[in-house]
Every structure is written in C-alpha cells, then in structure tokens.
Amino acid sequence: MPEVKAYWQNYIDGAWTDGGAGRIVVDDPATGENLAEQGLADAGDVNRAVVAARACHETGVLTAMRPVERGRMVQAMGDYLLANIDIIAEVLCREAGKPLWEARLEVEGAARYFEYYGNQAETFEGRSIPLGEGYYDFTSYEPYGVSAQVIPWNYPLEMAARSLAPALATGNACVVKTPELAPLSSAYIAKAAEHAGLPRGAVNILCGLGREAGASLVGHRDVSQIVFIGSVTTGISIASAAARNVVPCVLELGGKSAAIVWPDADLDALVSSVRWGIFFNAGQVCSAMSRLIVHDDVHDEVVERVADMARSISVGPGLDRPDFGANMGAMISAAQRDRAEAMCREAKRQGARPVVGGRKLNQPGYFLEPTIFDGVTPDMNIARDEIFGPVLSVLKFGEDEEAVRIANGTDYGLVGGVFTADVTRAMKTAARLRAGQVFVNEWFAGGVETPFGGYGKSGYGREKGREALWNYVQTKNIAISLQS
C-alpha cells in the first residue's frame, strides 16, 4: 500500500503554510484508520488568502496577459495533473475511499476542465452595438476579481478544477476552501499552479472548518464572487452571506434525480446506466440516479436485471480491486454511511421492499452494500430525501402523465433521465421534466462542454460549458461620441 505523507499544509500567496487553527486528522474511509494530518486554516489565514488574491487582481497581472497566454497556463495545470496521475490518484483513493480506477478518472476529469477552459480563454469576446452615425459603442467583459470557491468532499479534485479553470481563464484570482474530509489531493492543484507559472496570489488553497474558515471566506468584504457545491442548508447560508455583500454566487446543491423507463427502452443500456448512475462513487454524487420510475409492463424484468447487476459489484478497499467498473468503494465517513443505513431502515418501516443490500458491511471501513428498494411510493422519505449513498428507489407508473408527475414530485431539479426508443416521446418528456439537464438513453451523457445546474432547491447558476464563463465576468459597455 502506498505511503501518504503524514502532514499537509495550506497554500497562500505562493507559499506553503501551517494553519492557524491547528491540524485536523484525515481518515482513510476504506479502513477507518487515520491517514494523515492537514493544517487547518482559521479566519486570519482566510484573510491573508483573500488579501493576496485581491492584490494579484489589482496589479492587473492576469488581465494584462493576452488571453492565449493565460489560457496556456490554465492548460498547463491540467498537463501537470496528468503527468502526476499515479501519485495523485493514490492519494485521492486513500483520502476519499474511491476505487483506484475511479480516482484516476477523477484526475483525468480535472485535467479535462483545465484543457477545455484553457482553450476557451481566447474565444471570449465582446461585441459592438450600432447606435447610428456619430457613435461607436462596444462591450467588454471584465473579471469580478476574487472568486471564493467552497469545494465538496465527493469530488474534491474535479470540482475544484471545474470552478477554478474558468475563473482563471477569465482573469480572476481564486481562494479555494477544500473539504476537511478529503483535502489532501487539492495540494496538487497548488503544485499545478506553480508548475504553470501563475503569479503569486492567483491560486490559494486552504482547508478549514465551514463554521470558521468557510464563513470567513464567503462573508469577506473583498470577495467578489462565490461558488458553492454542497447541501441546501449550507447553500442558503452562503447565499445569505453573498446577499449581505451584494456579490453574485453560483450554487449547486442537492438532487433526487429520476430516470423514466418505457417498455421500448434498451434494457442493456439501462442496466449500464444504473451501474454508473447510482453505484459510481458509492452513490455520493449530486446528480445520481436515485429514483428509477419504471413502466408496469417492464417493471419486474428491470428490477431483476438491475438487482443482478448490483449483486455482481464487489465492495471493498479501492487499492485492492483495480478492475475497471467491477467494484465499489467506501462512503466518505462513518456518519455518512450510518445516515444512509438509517434511511434504508426507515424505508423498510414505511413499506418499501429491499431487493438487494440496505446494510453496512461487517468489516473495517465505511462501506454500505449496493442497495435497491422496490415498492417505493412517492410519499416515502426514500423517494423524496437525498440519501447521497448507493441506494436506488424503484417506483412504478402506467401512464406518461403519472411518470412526469412522479419525477417532478420533489423539491429538487438537478438532472433527469428518459429511456425510450421513441424520439418524440423522449423530446416531449425532456421538455416537461423540471431539471437543469436531461439525459436520454444514457445517464451522465454529455461532458465538460455541456452546461450543468439545477432548478428548485438544487440551486442556481450553471457550471460547465461556455455558460460557466459568464459566472466569472461582468459586462462593461463603452459608448463613444464621435461628434466634434
């Protein structure tokens, strides 16, 4: 088993530094044992990071570059991650409980964001507006300044890259608060920034508790824009802090996403999508396929086939099972695992039928079995509340109207899915689903290029794609009178 260094620091103003709040222990979710210690930032550390980012912005060093030069630096960050993927993936595997192959996919995904937005840097252009003879009018787009980014533990490397890459490409300086449950791999983001030659203060990476470091960051008067990925409750607090300082924020919050399955669906493709949709990353995905709404005519066959697939997945430490797609790792913590198991017990109490799983494993580490519940009705807690674990709820429908009503029957609206060979039905249903993104015949279709974000309590704003660039700039109009 690879060694992970015992102590990790924060990165502020181009230097590695301890945390003013001491240290925090990071566990290995696959064993439950202590893995390493991370320096813990306090409010003073946050202030130093924001001041450094503000100074970087105000010197104009980022905006003075030609966009292509800035874009090449962003791309170089991704190149660094790929060049060091073996080391980074092992650290990520150990701190987050992922199988090693999943960790490698995350590193590759993070690198892809830097590649994509590095390429976008020189394509982001203003426009001229005709005002008639005697006037010349045009718009330009300027970075907000300091972007504060609060990153979740389920994809600590990839989610940091998702917001950091477009922010840097548009000329912002950034302060990233990493998740205290999985902060270690984020150090390689700072190393990537150094490798790329970004100026001091452009990238600051620190770990701290939400109640101190997180609150200090999102409430700081010199922060110009905020990105948050996490729970609805915390998202409301962050939106309130942003409103007090009158700064924009992007929120990606919870999900309870549903896939609707008609009798003409390709069931082989469906089973593959269920595998990725709910059991990838042990179900700890905001856009997980947590509900499967199946037509009466194919319900029994679908349940049987997805149950067989779930039983075929091995569960255990990620470094021990390198085979692509064959295994599922641990949940991030004992508390998260126990919460998911408690929701499974409540589902049984309310009348849902456990087809597979529903229990934690009797072994070290924070493991929950791949779980499928049938006989779920829309009023049950398991059909309404986000579990954030490897638990699938199967519901029945008879008519199209009923399927859409069930799918839209939660407070969330992050993604949705449609499985049918009928293109007309797919298009009509996609238009009616209250979700920011709809997958047709393949869960997680799309990519870095496609915009992503939620309706309802799943948040607001869009990440990914060119739409994300607008999060980090404000429009300036310049109107010139040419009359003498």
TrEMBL record:
Protein's recorded name: NAD-dependent aldehyde dehydrogenase
Species assigned in the record: Mesorhizobium australicum (strain HAMBI 3006 / LMG 24608 / WSM2073)
Cross-referenced InterPro entries: Ald_DH/histidinol_DH, Ald_DH_C, Ald_DH_CS_CYS, Ald_DH_CS_GLU, Ald_DH_N, Aldehyde_DH_dom
Record key words, sorted: Oxidation, Oxidoreductase
UniProt xrefs under PROSITE patterns: ALDEHYDE_DEHYDR_CYS, ALDEHYDE_DEHYDR_GLU
Alphabetized GO MF terms: oxidoreductase activity, acting on the aldehyde or oxo group of donors, NAD or NADP as acceptor
Ranges in a coiled coil: none
Pfam short name (any one): Aldedh
SUPFAM superfamilies reported in the protein's UniProt record: ALDH-like
Family: Belongs to the aldehyde dehydrogenase family.
Recorded superkingdom: Bacteria
Active-site residues, Swiss-Prot/TrEMBL: 252
Residues annotated as domain Aldehyde dehydrogenase: 16-478
